[in-house]
């Protein structure tokens, strides 16, 4: 389920030389030339606006996305319509993790949280590439483990830590995922992702703003003090960063 407004382009230049764009994704960066070339032959660059719904739970996984500049929220949807974010996927990772484990239906709703560009490859095409791409396969499996660790850490965080700490952690993770300290965000959306009431998020964001750690106006967030925001966060951001250092290259 993809927005019709998605822009799609092929990612090889006219002279056949691969562009530098894939290097912006941590999994694709550093791949052997032969493996990257096989991937790019089957991939295309797409651009999604914020709030685009890319897939739904239970649907067959048709496309796998490797973010370059945007970010995707993997969301659990309860029967009453409540949405809770399980994990965000930015330039460090990819969607469609079940495919690596020979599972071909989506477990989450995928929502483009931060507008940007992505490399898209059909799930069947990715499986074909992996038959002769051991480095890519290893990177994908490491990311799957990382995603599992982060999901568990986030569940613990949401159970124990304050809304202000969780908001700081979420902002830091998002900044890492998109590679910038400024991005679009509404309090309504953040409250949905953290599964808390909007007034609680409003109080938390105001507290972070008063401490000159962030600026939040007109649906945009700017992180003004990364060190201070890390200090305002709970231990979970540091733990997630340690997992990234261990598992992601």
Using only CA atoms, what is the Rg?
A: 18 Å
Sequence of strands across the biggest β-sheet: 1-2-8-4
Structural class: alpha+beta
DSSP, total strands = 11
Which stretches of 5+ consecutive residues score pLDDT under 50?
10-18
* String of helices and strands: EHEEEEEHEEHHHEHHEEHH
Helix tally? 9
Mean pLDDT: 89
What would you call the shape? Answer: globular
- Main pleated sheet: 4 strands, antiparallel
The percent of residues in helical segments reads 40-55%
Q: Classify the beta-strand content into a percent band.
A: 15-25%
How far apart, in Å, are the first and last alpha carbons? 31 Å
Describe this structure in words.
With 249 residues, this protein is an alpha+beta fold. Helix content is 43%, strand content 22%.
List keywords for this structure.
alpha+beta; 249 residues; 11 strands; globular; 4-stranded antiparallel sheet
